[in-house]
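Notes on consecutive records. When two proteins share a document, each keeps its own sequence and its own C-alpha coordinate line. Never mix them. Below: protein one.
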Amino acid sequence: MKETGYLSYNGKRLRMGYTTGTCATAATMAAVEMLLTQKPVHQVQVKTPGGVDLVLEIDHCQLSPDQASCSVVKDGGDDADATDGLDIYATVTRRQDNQITLDGGQGVGRVTKPGLKIEPGNAAINPTPRKMIQEAARDLLGPDQGVDILISVPGGEETAKATQNPQLGILGGISILGTSGIVRPMSEDTWKESITLEMQQKKALGLDKLILTPGNYGNDFIAEHTHLNPDYIVQMSNFVGYVLLEAMRIGFTDILLVGHLGKFIKIAGGIFSTHS
Protein backbone atom coordinates (compact mmCIF):
# COMPACT_ATOMS: atom_id res chain seq x y z
CA MET A 1 0.00 0.00 0.00
CA LYS A 2 1.07 3.61 -0.41
CA GLU A 3 2.05 5.28 2.85
CA THR A 4 -1.03 6.67 4.54
CA GLY A 5 1.12 8.96 6.64
CA TYR A 6 1.99 9.55 10.24
CA LEU A 7 0.89 11.87 12.99
CA SER A 8 2.49 12.89 16.27
CA TYR A 9 0.85 12.10 19.62
CA ASN A 10 2.57 12.83 22.95
CA GLY A 11 5.90 12.89 21.16
CA LYS A 12 5.34 9.54 19.43
CA ARG A 13 5.21 9.02 15.67
CA LEU A 14 2.08 6.98 14.93
CA ARG A 15 1.20 5.35 11.61
CA MET A 16 -2.27 5.99 10.23
CA GLY A 17 -4.39 3.16 8.79
CA TYR A 18 -7.54 2.82 6.73
CA THR A 19 -11.15 2.08 7.58
CA THR A 20 -13.37 -0.93 7.01
CA GLY A 21 -15.22 1.23 4.46
CA THR A 22 -12.02 1.75 2.47
CA CYS A 23 -11.29 -1.99 2.60
CA ALA A 24 -14.80 -2.88 1.41
CA THR A 25 -14.52 -0.37 -1.44
CA ALA A 26 -11.14 -1.70 -2.56
CA ALA A 27 -12.35 -5.31 -2.41
CA THR A 28 -15.44 -4.37 -4.43
CA MET A 29 -13.35 -2.59 -7.07
CA ALA A 30 -11.10 -5.62 -7.43
CA ALA A 31 -14.00 -8.07 -7.58
CA VAL A 32 -15.82 -6.03 -10.25
CA GLU A 33 -12.63 -5.73 -12.31
CA MET A 34 -12.10 -9.49 -12.01
CA LEU A 35 -15.65 -10.16 -13.14
CA LEU A 36 -15.23 -7.91 -16.17
CA THR A 37 -11.78 -9.13 -17.24
CA GLN A 38 -11.97 -12.72 -15.95
CA LYS A 39 -8.47 -12.27 -14.56
CA PRO A 40 -7.18 -12.08 -10.95
CA VAL A 41 -6.44 -8.62 -9.53
CA HIS A 42 -3.60 -8.11 -7.06
CA GLN A 43 -3.79 -4.38 -6.27
CA VAL A 44 -6.24 -1.51 -6.62
CA GLN A 45 -5.94 2.22 -6.08
CA VAL A 46 -8.61 3.88 -3.96
CA LYS A 47 -9.17 7.60 -3.44
CA THR A 48 -10.57 8.07 0.06
CA PRO A 49 -13.19 10.71 0.91
CA GLY A 50 -10.40 12.52 2.78
CA GLY A 51 -8.48 12.88 -0.48
CA VAL A 52 -5.74 10.32 0.28
CA ASP A 53 -4.80 7.89 -2.50
CA LEU A 54 -4.12 4.32 -1.34
CA VAL A 55 -2.84 1.28 -3.21
CA LEU A 56 -4.21 -1.78 -1.40
CA GLU A 57 -3.22 -5.41 -1.76
CA ILE A 58 -5.94 -7.91 -2.79
CA ASP A 59 -6.16 -11.41 -1.28
CA HIS A 60 -8.24 -14.61 -1.57
CA CYS A 61 -9.33 -14.13 -5.17
CA GLN A 62 -12.02 -16.48 -6.50
CA LEU A 63 -13.51 -16.17 -9.96
CA SER A 64 -16.21 -17.68 -12.16
CA PRO A 65 -17.99 -16.31 -15.25
CA ASP A 66 -20.81 -14.77 -13.20
CA GLN A 67 -19.23 -14.16 -9.79
CA ALA A 68 -15.99 -12.82 -8.30
CA SER A 69 -14.81 -12.59 -4.71
CA CYS A 70 -11.73 -11.22 -2.94
CA SER A 71 -10.64 -9.54 0.28
CA VAL A 72 -8.56 -6.72 1.74
CA VAL A 73 -6.92 -7.03 5.15
CA LYS A 74 -8.00 -4.25 7.51
CA ASP A 75 -5.04 -2.18 8.71
CA GLY A 76 -5.74 0.13 11.62
CA GLY A 77 -2.22 1.56 11.64
CA ASP A 78 -1.06 2.25 15.19
CA ASP A 79 -4.60 2.73 16.46
CA ALA A 80 -6.11 0.42 19.09
CA ASP A 81 -8.60 -0.99 16.59
CA ALA A 82 -10.62 -4.14 17.27
CA THR A 83 -11.07 -4.77 13.55
CA ASP A 84 -7.35 -4.66 12.72
CA GLY A 85 -6.26 -7.73 10.75
CA LEU A 86 -9.74 -8.83 9.67
CA ASP A 87 -10.36 -9.85 6.06
CA ILE A 88 -13.01 -7.61 4.50
CA TYR A 89 -14.53 -9.55 1.59
CA ALA A 90 -16.56 -8.37 -1.38
CA THR A 91 -18.47 -10.83 -3.53
CA VAL A 92 -20.02 -9.48 -6.73
CA THR A 93 -22.55 -11.40 -8.78
CA ARG A 94 -23.57 -10.47 -12.29
CA ARG A 95 -27.16 -9.29 -12.81
CA GLN A 96 -29.30 -9.35 -15.95
CA ASP A 97 -30.18 -5.65 -15.55
CA ASN A 98 -28.14 -2.53 -14.78
CA GLN A 99 -28.99 -2.25 -11.08
CA ILE A 100 -26.39 -2.31 -8.29
CA THR A 101 -27.46 -3.76 -4.93
CA LEU A 102 -25.43 -3.80 -1.71
CA ASP A 103 -25.89 -5.97 1.37
CA GLY A 104 -23.95 -7.42 4.27
CA GLY A 105 -23.23 -11.10 4.79
CA GLN A 106 -21.40 -13.11 7.44
CA GLY A 107 -19.75 -10.95 10.09
CA VAL A 108 -21.44 -7.69 9.05
CA GLY A 109 -23.95 -6.45 11.61
CA ARG A 110 -27.62 -5.89 11.00
CA VAL A 111 -29.40 -2.81 12.42
CA THR A 112 -32.32 -3.71 14.70
CA LYS A 113 -33.22 -0.40 16.39
CA PRO A 114 -34.18 3.07 15.09
CA GLY A 115 -32.12 6.19 15.63
CA LEU A 116 -29.00 5.28 13.62
CA LYS A 117 -27.88 6.43 10.17
CA ILE A 118 -29.11 3.14 8.69
CA GLU A 119 -32.74 2.03 8.97
CA PRO A 120 -33.59 -1.15 10.95
CA GLY A 121 -33.34 -4.33 8.92
CA ASN A 122 -30.43 -3.13 6.80
CA ALA A 123 -26.79 -4.14 6.93
CA ALA A 124 -24.62 -1.86 9.09
CA ILE A 125 -22.80 -0.28 6.16
CA ASN A 126 -22.73 3.43 6.92
CA PRO A 127 -23.71 6.09 4.34
CA THR A 128 -20.20 7.21 3.31
CA PRO A 129 -18.78 3.71 2.62
CA ARG A 130 -22.12 2.69 1.09
CA LYS A 131 -21.78 5.55 -1.38
CA MET A 132 -18.08 4.80 -2.00
CA ILE A 133 -18.77 1.13 -2.77
CA GLN A 134 -21.70 1.77 -5.11
CA GLU A 135 -20.01 4.63 -6.97
CA ALA A 136 -16.79 2.65 -7.41
CA ALA A 137 -18.76 -0.27 -8.85
CA ARG A 138 -20.72 1.99 -11.19
CA ASP A 139 -17.55 3.67 -12.47
CA LEU A 140 -16.15 0.28 -13.46
CA LEU A 141 -19.38 -1.24 -14.79
CA GLY A 142 -20.62 1.72 -16.79
CA PRO A 143 -24.34 2.54 -17.13
CA ASP A 144 -25.53 -0.71 -18.73
CA GLN A 145 -24.33 -3.48 -16.39
CA GLY A 146 -25.38 -4.37 -12.85
CA VAL A 147 -24.17 -6.51 -9.96
CA ASP A 148 -25.20 -7.67 -6.50
CA ILE A 149 -22.49 -6.77 -3.96
CA LEU A 150 -22.16 -8.69 -0.69
CA ILE A 151 -19.70 -7.50 1.97
CA SER A 152 -18.67 -10.11 4.54
CA VAL A 153 -16.16 -10.29 7.39
CA PRO A 154 -15.19 -13.72 8.74
CA GLY A 155 -14.70 -13.31 12.49
CA GLY A 156 -16.76 -10.12 12.52
CA GLU A 157 -19.43 -11.49 14.83
CA GLU A 158 -16.90 -12.25 17.57
CA THR A 159 -15.01 -8.99 17.03
CA ALA A 160 -18.23 -6.98 17.34
CA LYS A 161 -18.48 -7.99 21.00
CA ALA A 162 -15.52 -5.65 21.65
CA THR A 163 -17.33 -2.72 19.99
CA GLN A 164 -20.41 -0.67 20.84
CA ASN A 165 -22.54 -2.52 18.29
CA PRO A 166 -24.39 -4.69 20.84
CA GLN A 167 -25.36 -1.56 22.81
CA LEU A 168 -26.63 0.09 19.62
CA GLY A 169 -28.71 -2.92 18.61
CA ILE A 170 -26.40 -3.84 15.71
CA LEU A 171 -26.37 -7.63 15.83
CA GLY A 172 -24.37 -10.32 14.09
CA GLY A 173 -21.15 -8.50 13.30
CA ILE A 174 -19.15 -5.31 12.88
CA SER A 175 -20.13 -2.13 11.07
CA ILE A 176 -18.56 -0.96 7.82
CA LEU A 177 -17.51 2.55 8.76
CA GLY A 178 -15.44 5.55 7.75
CA THR A 179 -16.18 9.15 6.86
CA SER A 180 -12.63 10.09 5.80
CA GLY A 181 -11.48 6.59 4.82
CA ILE A 182 -8.39 6.97 7.03
CA VAL A 183 -7.85 5.82 10.63
CA ARG A 184 -6.09 8.44 12.75
CA PRO A 185 -4.46 6.83 15.82
CA MET A 186 -5.66 8.07 19.21
CA SER A 187 -8.42 10.12 17.59
CA GLU A 188 -11.41 10.71 19.86
CA ASP A 189 -13.79 11.70 17.06
CA THR A 190 -15.12 8.21 16.30
CA TRP A 191 -15.58 7.48 20.00
CA LYS A 192 -17.55 10.69 20.52
CA GLU A 193 -19.66 10.01 17.44
CA SER A 194 -20.61 6.57 18.78
CA ILE A 195 -21.78 8.13 22.06
CA THR A 196 -23.89 10.65 20.14
CA LEU A 197 -25.40 7.81 18.08
CA GLU A 198 -26.30 5.92 21.25
CA MET A 199 -28.02 8.99 22.73
CA GLN A 200 -29.87 9.70 19.47
CA GLN A 201 -31.06 6.11 19.41
CA LYS A 202 -32.41 6.32 22.97
CA LYS A 203 -34.24 9.52 22.05
CA ALA A 204 -35.71 7.80 18.96
CA LEU A 205 -36.94 5.01 21.23
CA GLY A 206 -38.91 7.58 23.26
CA LEU A 207 -36.61 8.15 26.24
CA ASP A 208 -36.31 11.72 27.55
CA LYS A 209 -33.98 11.00 30.49
CA LEU A 210 -30.36 9.86 30.65
CA ILE A 211 -28.07 8.29 33.23
CA LEU A 212 -24.48 9.19 32.34
CA THR A 213 -21.57 7.20 33.74
CA PRO A 214 -17.85 7.66 33.10
CA GLY A 215 -17.35 3.89 32.86
CA ASN A 216 -17.84 0.49 34.45
CA TYR A 217 -17.60 1.76 38.03
CA GLY A 218 -20.81 3.72 37.60
CA ASN A 219 -22.52 0.89 35.74
CA ASP A 220 -21.61 -1.61 38.47
CA PHE A 221 -22.82 0.73 41.22
CA ILE A 222 -26.18 1.15 39.48
CA ALA A 223 -26.60 -2.61 39.06
CA GLU A 224 -25.55 -3.51 42.61
CA HIS A 225 -26.98 -0.67 44.71
CA THR A 226 -29.94 0.90 42.88
CA HIS A 227 -33.14 0.02 41.09
CA LEU A 228 -32.47 2.43 38.21
CA ASN A 229 -33.49 1.30 34.74
CA PRO A 230 -30.32 0.32 32.79
CA ASP A 231 -32.03 1.31 29.51
CA TYR A 232 -31.28 4.94 30.41
CA ILE A 233 -27.51 4.43 30.84
CA VAL A 234 -24.91 5.87 28.46
CA GLN A 235 -21.18 5.63 29.14
CA MET A 236 -19.67 9.06 28.49
CA SER A 237 -16.03 8.13 29.22
CA ASN A 238 -14.06 11.34 29.94
CA PHE A 239 -16.04 13.48 27.48
CA VAL A 240 -18.32 15.07 30.08
CA GLY A 241 -18.62 18.50 28.50
CA TYR A 242 -19.12 17.13 25.00
CA VAL A 243 -21.76 14.61 26.11
CA LEU A 244 -23.72 17.12 28.21
CA LEU A 245 -23.88 19.57 25.29
CA GLU A 246 -24.93 16.77 22.91
CA ALA A 247 -27.60 15.57 25.37
CA MET A 248 -29.03 19.10 25.49
CA ARG A 249 -28.93 19.40 21.70
CA ILE A 250 -30.70 16.06 21.23
CA GLY A 251 -33.42 17.15 23.67
CA PHE A 252 -33.06 15.20 26.91
CA THR A 253 -34.79 16.93 29.82
CA ASP A 254 -33.36 15.07 32.85
CA ILE A 255 -29.78 13.84 33.34
CA LEU A 256 -28.34 11.90 36.28
CA LEU A 257 -24.58 11.42 36.66
CA VAL A 258 -23.38 8.28 38.44
CA GLY A 259 -19.70 7.49 38.96
CA HIS A 260 -16.57 7.76 41.07
CA LEU A 261 -16.27 10.76 43.36
CA GLY A 262 -12.85 11.61 41.94
CA LYS A 263 -14.37 12.26 38.51
CA PHE A 264 -17.14 14.40 39.96
CA ILE A 265 -14.70 16.54 41.96
CA LYS A 266 -13.12 17.47 38.63
CA ILE A 267 -16.53 18.33 37.16
CA ALA A 268 -17.38 20.41 40.24
CA GLY A 269 -14.14 22.30 39.62
CA GLY A 270 -15.17 23.11 36.07
CA ILE A 271 -13.07 20.42 34.39
CA PHE A 272 -15.25 18.85 31.69
CA SER A 273 -12.67 16.53 30.18
CA THR A 274 -11.86 14.17 33.02
CA HIS A 275 -8.91 12.15 31.65
CA SER A 276 -6.57 11.18 34.46
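Protein two starts on the next line and is unrelated to protein one.
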Amino acid sequence: MDATVQAVANNLDLSQNTPLKDALLDALRKTIILGDIAAGTRINEKKLSEGLNVSRTPIRYALRRLASENLVESIPGVSMVVRGITIKDAYEIFDIRKELDALATRKAMLRMTAVDFETLRELLEQTERELDVVPDITMVSYFTDFNQFIYQHCEMPHLVTIVFKLQAYLVYFRDISIMSRERRALALQEHWRIYQAMVNQDEAQINLIIREHLGQSLQFIVKEMRAHNLD
Protein backbone atom coordinates (compact mmCIF):
# COMPACT_ATOMS: atom_id res chain seq x y z
CA MET A 1 0.00 0.00 0.00
CA ASP A 2 1.16 3.52 -0.82
CA ALA A 3 2.85 5.18 2.21
CA THR A 4 0.47 8.14 2.21
CA VAL A 5 -2.58 5.89 2.00
CA GLN A 6 -1.22 3.70 4.81
CA ALA A 7 -0.62 6.75 7.03
CA VAL A 8 -4.22 7.92 6.53
CA ALA A 9 -5.57 4.40 7.06
CA ASN A 10 -3.73 4.21 10.39
CA ASN A 11 -5.65 7.27 11.61
CA LEU A 12 -9.02 6.43 10.06
CA ASP A 13 -11.52 5.47 12.76
CA LEU A 14 -14.70 3.97 11.37
CA SER A 15 -15.86 2.56 14.71
CA GLN A 16 -17.72 5.73 15.68
CA ASN A 17 -21.14 6.72 14.41
CA THR A 18 -19.63 9.42 12.20
CA PRO A 19 -20.33 10.13 8.51
CA LEU A 20 -17.58 8.76 6.30
CA LYS A 21 -16.66 12.20 4.95
CA ASP A 22 -16.10 13.53 8.49
CA ALA A 23 -14.14 10.46 9.58
CA LEU A 24 -11.95 10.82 6.51
CA LEU A 25 -11.50 14.54 7.14
CA ASP A 26 -10.38 13.87 10.71
CA ALA A 27 -7.99 11.13 9.57
CA LEU A 28 -6.40 13.31 6.90
CA ARG A 29 -6.17 16.31 9.22
CA LYS A 30 -4.56 14.24 11.99
CA THR A 31 -2.14 12.57 9.57
CA ILE A 32 -1.02 15.92 8.16
CA ILE A 33 -0.73 17.73 11.50
CA LEU A 34 1.28 14.93 13.08
CA GLY A 35 3.64 15.01 10.12
CA ASP A 36 2.87 11.45 9.02
CA ILE A 37 2.52 12.98 5.55
CA ALA A 38 5.39 15.38 4.92
CA ALA A 39 4.91 18.92 3.67
CA GLY A 40 5.16 19.00 -0.11
CA THR A 41 3.60 15.56 -0.56
CA ARG A 42 1.06 15.32 -3.35
CA ILE A 43 -2.34 13.91 -2.39
CA ASN A 44 -3.39 11.42 -5.04
CA GLU A 45 -7.19 11.12 -4.95
CA LYS A 46 -7.20 7.94 -7.02
CA LYS A 47 -4.72 6.13 -4.76
CA LEU A 48 -6.59 7.22 -1.64
CA SER A 49 -9.89 6.10 -3.12
CA GLU A 50 -8.57 2.70 -4.15
CA GLY A 51 -6.42 2.14 -1.06
CA LEU A 52 -9.15 3.08 1.42
CA ASN A 53 -11.93 1.55 -0.67
CA VAL A 54 -14.02 4.73 -0.65
CA SER A 55 -15.37 6.92 -3.43
CA ARG A 56 -13.65 10.15 -4.39
CA THR A 57 -16.57 12.28 -3.17
CA PRO A 58 -15.69 12.20 0.59
CA ILE A 59 -12.01 12.58 -0.29
CA ARG A 60 -12.72 15.75 -2.27
CA TYR A 61 -14.88 17.05 0.58
CA ALA A 62 -12.05 16.47 3.06
CA LEU A 63 -9.47 18.11 0.82
CA ARG A 64 -11.67 21.18 0.31
CA ARG A 65 -12.02 21.54 4.06
CA LEU A 66 -8.28 21.09 4.60
CA ALA A 67 -7.59 23.70 1.93
CA SER A 68 -9.81 26.15 3.82
CA GLU A 69 -7.69 25.41 6.91
CA ASN A 70 -4.47 25.99 4.93
CA LEU A 71 -3.25 22.47 5.64
CA VAL A 72 -3.19 21.63 1.93
CA GLU A 73 -2.97 23.87 -1.10
CA SER A 74 -4.01 23.55 -4.71
CA ILE A 75 -1.12 23.85 -7.17
CA PRO A 76 -2.00 24.09 -10.87
CA GLY A 77 -1.01 20.95 -12.71
CA VAL A 78 -0.24 19.09 -9.49
CA SER A 79 -3.58 19.00 -7.64
CA MET A 80 -3.50 19.11 -3.83
CA VAL A 81 -0.18 19.30 -2.00
CA VAL A 82 0.33 19.06 1.76
CA ARG A 83 1.27 22.34 3.41
CA GLY A 84 1.27 20.97 6.96
CA ILE A 85 1.86 22.89 10.14
CA THR A 86 5.12 24.21 11.59
CA ILE A 87 6.44 25.23 14.99
CA LYS A 88 6.13 28.83 13.85
CA ASP A 89 2.42 28.19 13.24
CA ALA A 90 2.11 26.74 16.75
CA TYR A 91 3.61 29.86 18.33
CA GLU A 92 1.26 32.10 16.36
CA ILE A 93 -1.77 29.99 17.30
CA PHE A 94 -0.89 30.10 20.98
CA ASP A 95 -0.29 33.85 20.95
CA ILE A 96 -3.86 34.22 19.69
CA ARG A 97 -5.18 31.62 22.14
CA LYS A 98 -3.66 33.42 25.11
CA GLU A 99 -5.60 36.58 24.31
CA LEU A 100 -8.88 34.84 23.48
CA ASP A 101 -8.82 32.43 26.42
CA ALA A 102 -8.05 35.22 28.86
CA LEU A 103 -10.98 37.23 27.49
CA ALA A 104 -13.34 34.23 27.61
CA THR A 105 -12.35 33.45 31.19
CA ARG A 106 -12.84 37.03 32.36
CA LYS A 107 -16.29 37.15 30.74
CA ALA A 108 -17.28 33.76 32.16
CA MET A 109 -16.16 34.84 35.62
CA LEU A 110 -18.63 37.74 35.55
CA ARG A 111 -21.52 35.63 34.28
CA MET A 112 -21.18 32.48 36.35
CA THR A 113 -23.47 31.91 39.31
CA ALA A 114 -22.55 30.39 42.67
CA VAL A 115 -23.92 27.08 41.38
CA ASP A 116 -21.71 27.34 38.30
CA PHE A 117 -18.61 27.89 40.42
CA GLU A 118 -19.56 24.88 42.54
CA THR A 119 -19.97 22.72 39.42
CA LEU A 120 -16.55 23.79 38.12
CA ARG A 121 -14.95 23.08 41.50
CA GLU A 122 -16.51 19.61 41.56
CA LEU A 123 -15.07 18.91 38.11
CA LEU A 124 -11.60 19.84 39.33
CA GLU A 125 -11.99 17.68 42.42
CA GLN A 126 -13.06 14.73 40.28
CA THR A 127 -10.06 15.27 38.00
CA GLU A 128 -7.78 15.34 41.04
CA ARG A 129 -9.24 12.14 42.51
CA GLU A 130 -8.97 10.23 39.25
CA LEU A 131 -5.70 11.66 37.94
CA ASP A 132 -3.93 8.28 38.10
CA VAL A 133 -6.98 6.03 37.97
CA VAL A 134 -9.00 6.58 34.80
CA PRO A 135 -7.79 5.84 31.24
CA ASP A 136 -5.77 8.57 29.50
CA ILE A 137 -8.57 9.34 27.07
CA THR A 138 -10.99 9.95 29.97
CA MET A 139 -8.52 12.28 31.63
CA VAL A 140 -8.17 14.23 28.40
CA SER A 141 -11.96 14.63 28.38
CA TYR A 142 -11.90 16.07 31.92
CA PHE A 143 -9.45 18.79 30.90
CA THR A 144 -11.53 19.46 27.81
CA ASP A 145 -14.67 19.75 29.95
CA PHE A 146 -13.00 22.45 32.07
CA ASN A 147 -12.25 24.55 29.00
CA GLN A 148 -15.65 23.90 27.48
CA PHE A 149 -17.36 25.01 30.69
CA ILE A 150 -15.63 28.37 30.51
CA TYR A 151 -16.36 28.80 26.80
CA GLN A 152 -20.01 27.96 27.41
CA HIS A 153 -20.36 30.55 30.18
CA CYS A 154 -18.47 33.37 28.48
CA GLU A 155 -21.48 33.79 26.16
CA MET A 156 -19.27 34.80 23.24
CA PRO A 157 -20.16 32.42 20.38
CA HIS A 158 -17.95 34.12 17.79
CA LEU A 159 -14.91 33.90 20.08
CA VAL A 160 -15.64 30.22 20.73
CA THR A 161 -15.87 29.51 17.00
CA ILE A 162 -12.44 31.05 16.44
CA VAL A 163 -10.90 29.15 19.36
CA PHE A 164 -12.30 25.82 18.19
CA LYS A 165 -10.90 26.38 14.71
CA LEU A 166 -7.46 27.10 16.19
CA GLN A 167 -7.67 24.07 18.45
CA ALA A 168 -8.31 21.83 15.47
CA TYR A 169 -4.70 22.35 14.38
CA LEU A 170 -3.06 21.26 17.61
CA VAL A 171 -5.61 19.06 19.36
CA TYR A 172 -3.63 15.91 18.57
CA PHE A 173 -0.45 17.29 20.13
CA ARG A 174 -2.47 18.59 23.08
CA ASP A 175 -3.84 15.12 23.70
CA ILE A 176 -0.34 13.66 23.54
CA SER A 177 0.92 16.20 26.08
CA ILE A 178 -1.99 15.61 28.48
CA MET A 179 -1.23 11.88 28.38
CA SER A 180 2.09 12.70 30.04
CA ARG A 181 1.66 12.20 33.83
CA GLU A 182 3.90 15.19 34.51
CA ARG A 183 1.93 17.48 32.22
CA ARG A 184 -1.44 16.28 33.58
CA ALA A 185 -0.47 17.10 37.15
CA LEU A 186 0.87 20.52 36.19
CA ALA A 187 -2.16 21.33 34.02
CA LEU A 188 -4.48 20.44 36.91
CA GLN A 189 -2.60 22.81 39.22
CA GLU A 190 -2.94 25.54 36.60
CA HIS A 191 -6.68 24.90 36.27
CA TRP A 192 -7.05 25.21 40.04
CA ARG A 193 -5.22 28.54 39.92
CA ILE A 194 -7.47 29.78 37.10
CA TYR A 195 -10.53 28.71 39.09
CA GLN A 196 -9.33 30.51 42.22
CA ALA A 197 -8.59 33.69 40.29
CA MET A 198 -12.13 33.53 38.88
CA VAL A 199 -13.59 33.10 42.37
CA ASN A 200 -11.54 36.09 43.53
CA GLN A 201 -12.67 38.14 40.51
CA ASP A 202 -8.99 38.90 39.86
CA GLU A 203 -8.63 39.79 36.18
CA ALA A 204 -4.89 40.48 36.42
CA GLN A 205 -4.26 37.01 37.86
CA ILE A 206 -6.47 35.42 35.21
CA ASN A 207 -4.43 37.07 32.46
CA LEU A 208 -1.15 36.01 34.07
CA ILE A 209 -2.11 32.41 34.86
CA ILE A 210 -3.66 31.72 31.45
CA ARG A 211 -0.55 32.99 29.70
CA GLU A 212 1.57 30.73 31.91
CA HIS A 213 -0.81 27.80 31.43
CA LEU A 214 -0.89 28.03 27.63
CA GLY A 215 2.84 28.75 27.56
CA GLN A 216 3.46 25.45 29.36
CA SER A 217 1.15 23.62 26.95
CA LEU A 218 2.96 25.18 24.00
CA GLN A 219 6.34 23.94 25.22
CA PHE A 220 5.06 20.37 25.47
CA ILE A 221 3.51 20.64 22.00
CA VAL A 222 6.68 22.11 20.48
CA LYS A 223 8.65 19.25 22.00
CA GLU A 224 6.30 16.74 20.35
CA MET A 225 6.44 18.60 17.03
CA ARG A 226 10.23 18.51 17.08
CA ALA A 227 10.07 14.80 17.80
CA HIS A 228 7.99 14.52 14.63
CA ASN A 229 10.55 16.70 12.77
CA LEU A 230 8.02 19.48 12.22
CA ASP A 231 10.42 22.43 12.39
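For the record: The first strand starts at residue 72 and ends at 75.
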